[in-house]
Amino acid sequence: TPLTSIINYVDLLGQEQLEGKAAEYLEVLDRQSKRLKKLTEDLVEASKASTGNLNVSLEPTGICEILHQALGEYTERLEAGRLEAVLDTPGEEVYVMADGRLLWRVVDNLLSNVSKYSLAGTRVYLQVEQLNGEVVMSVKNISRDRLGIDAQELMERFVRGDTARSTEGSGLGLNIARSLTELMQGRFHLIVDGDLFKVEVRFWEIG
């Protein structure tokens, strides 16, 4: 694709050991081309998720294991943002009917959102609990920016806090996470209270 060609040529220029303004311009090109690539990928995934144009294979899936593994991959990013993760899960694994690959993507999107937009020096709470036959996975954090909009607006595509618009990402993460959750017959809830940001993902528990 044209975008792939641009990225490849930028990589080739990076091997030329440019200096001064040329090196600065190349850095901008590299950053923005990769950002555009991520946006394109997110648009494709959002379209597939919202239209149900994805293969979904529901099977008993351990939700705690996926959360633990995903959190392990985000350890460095959370530490870089001076964020402390507080994890609370049952002593034994709990199982839900889900597609492990898609559930991983949901958790990945939530942790990506947390790592980008949480207030530095605060805690991020991740919990899995069993409530009335359901398994509820929740992620709660304090927003770095004053949100000023309600949960429904935050769920709309491309909507993020005003000062967050200069950060990396497409703003599609929450929308994709919700669509993927619903494809797996789960429920996705977003709660906004001032600068408190909380997401709940619910599935029926299986024995």
If you had to describe this structure to a student in words, what would you say it looks like?
The protein has 2 domains: 2-51; 59-204, Histidine kinase-like ATPase, C-terminal domain (Heat Shock Protein 90), CATH 3.30.565. It is 46% helix and 24% strand. The protein has helices at 2-14, 20-51, 63-73, 75-80, 100-117, 151-155, 173-183; strands at residues 59-62, 84-88, 95-98, 123-131, 134-142, 187-193, 196-206. Strands 1, 2, 3, 4, 5, 6 and 7 form a 7-stranded mixed beta sheet that branches. The radius of gyration is 19 Å and the shape is globular.
Would you kindly provide a brief summary of this structure?
The protein is α+β, with helices and mostly antiparallel strands. It has helices spanning 2-14, 20-51, 63-73, 75-80, 100-117, 151-155, 173-183; strands at 59-62, 84-88, 95-98, 123-131, 134-142, 187-193, 196-206. Helix 5 (100-117) runs antiparallel to helix 7 (173-183).
Give a topology summary.
Blueprint: H1 2-14, H2 20-51, E1 59-62, H3 63-73, H4 75-80, E2 84-88, E3 95-98, H5 100-117, E4 123-131, E5 134-142, H6 151-155, H7 173-183, E6 187-193, E7 196-206
Parallel strand pairs: 2-4
Antiparallel strand pairs: 1-3, 3-7, 4-5, 5-7, 6-7
Helix pairs in contact: 1-2, 2-7, 3-5, 5-7
